[in-house]
Design goal:
Number of strands of chain A: 4
CATH topology of the largest domain in chain B: Rossmann fold
Number of strands of chain B: 10
Strand content of chain A: 5-15%
Number of domains of chain A: 2
Largest sheet of chain A: 4 strands, mixed
Oligomer: heterodimer
Distance between the termini of chain B: 51 Å
Distance between the termini of chain A: 87 Å
Largest sheet of chain B: 6 strands, mixed
Shape of chain A: elongated
Number of helices of chain A: 12
Strand order of the largest sheet of chain B: 6-7-8-3-9-10
CATH architecture of the largest domain in chain B: 3-Layer(aba) Sandwich
Amino acid sequence: MSEQQDWLVSVSDSGTQVLAASGGWTLAGAGSLATILNGFRPDPQRAQKIRLDLSRLDALDTVGALLLRQFRDRMTLEGLSVLIVNVRPEHIALIDAVWRAADSEPVAPPKRRPLADAIENAGRASIKALHSSVELISYFGLVITTLARVLIHPKRLRFTALVYHMDHTGLRCLPILGLLSFLIGVVLAYQGAEQLRRLAAEIYVVNLLGLSILREIGILITAIIVAGRSGSAFTAQIGTMKVNQEIDAMRTIGLDPIEMLVVPRILALMLVMPLLTFFANMIALFGGATMSYILLDINFYQFVNQMRIPIDFWDATVALIKAPVFALVIGMVGCYEGLLVSGSAESVGLRTTKSVVESIFLVIVLNAFFSVLFQIIHI
Amino acid sequence: MTLPAADTVMRIRGLVTRFAGHLVHDGVDLDVYRGEVLGVVGASGSGKSVLLKAVVGLVEPSAGHIEVLGHDIDALSERERIALQARCGVLFQDGALFSSLTVAQNVAVPLVEHTDLPRTLIDEVVRVKIAMVGLPAEAALKYPSELSGGMRKRAGLARALALDPEILLLDEPTAGLDPIGAAAFDQLIGSLQHGLGLTVFMVTHDLDSLAAICDRIAVLNERKLLVGTLDSLQQVPNPWIRDYFGGPRGRAALGTGA
């Protein structure tokens, strides 16, 4: 390949300025070539015209042809006429194609108006939020009526789908749920023991564990894991079907996507969630009991006996009341976000994230609401 | 470097590919010459797209050699392979544009990643490429989801051409386009091929494309490849090929009448 300086050579200076382009005007050296061309100043003495000879040009590609065009345009702007001569036959079509394309007007991206844009975005977001809450309410109604219809006519229930989703959201959730619950129990017992030991009230670790796990922590950890595991899966599954137009296909065949897809999922989750919560509670208590035995020498018999003092019937069952409600929320949000997926694969990812965040948010808010409610009705 | 007389840019010898025990290609040989438009046809599921993927290195062949621009693609280091890929532009079936980027950003990706051009020059090159594939200038700021199928293909073509490749590989470029759009796309490929001196390797179903722009045609049938011109292939006594060119659509496209 030629030296950098060889790209543009002044050949003769008689009368008009004659330049010769040589070497390879290609993408490979385009950066340096652009610098040379932009740095070129015509000879002020004699130059009214420039003849640019391309006969020694070894290689030319679209970038080279574009730079040639830019060079000519810049010279023209400076009041010089540029005559391009001796174009090699194999370059004619290329230069022609690129120059024609270069004639297109560039479009400027829309101007930014910081304040006005912010106000506009806020307005749009508010209207969108209003619309989406109306949609959410009507979706809620649709799902509830469909759910009721399926329960009245059990033949409409997709039993295979229901069992499949119970297997996936329930049975297959057990290992991870068990492990995490056990660890939570261990950590609670450990922290409680540290503090209560100072008051010589180690035995109250049992009360602490029993109440906190059975009333709040067991169900919360279950709901969070289910939201992250199954809620997201619902969104991704339904969203991918939406992208593939499977939902549209269902509608044209006369199948109701709510009945086919949403009801089995929500129902499966509602059936499975109380069982998962019970499982999580037991494992977490077992973790706490194990830690109490190791740290405080409280054996399992003492642990269970002590538990019976503070824990009444309602303490043991409130979590099981909350579980189906949380399941309904997680399932609804998961399926709803899935149905909102539009067009692209990117949208599936976006909606899945939203679904998990929204359902965990709603679960925690509802949990607080339940705490207050149970306080008021004394259970 | 001197090249042999019949300047071969791609050489496939004894290619065998296997998917989960299923034999897709069994000893495929193919030469692609510089400056030609080669159409690859075959029944659905006959492995046309797999052949294209094998050529660009997305599918590992079970046996055989593929040489692209004089390099055996199995023998290349990672760095050399990337350099070679920059010399081959690929247009996937639906454009395969990055959905989170605008059309202009999509076309700019190879330029930003593989060259050290100043940003202003990249923007100019992108504008020219977008105009060259016949997209209106406003399309540059749009996202792929806002474009029609035909425009997405054109945008994908602009991205494939971003680095001025020597070989352009197209996977069913006219599938899913209306006849007018398909004819316009054929014309576009023909004129770009002429203007940029490209070698085009085109997988297609479209008989009109074959008749309009292909110099030679490779037929993938029974896991083997048969290469010829449109005329010579019609003389081949193979039932699939006879049905393909002799069917009503084939006759209409080739203008041989009923």
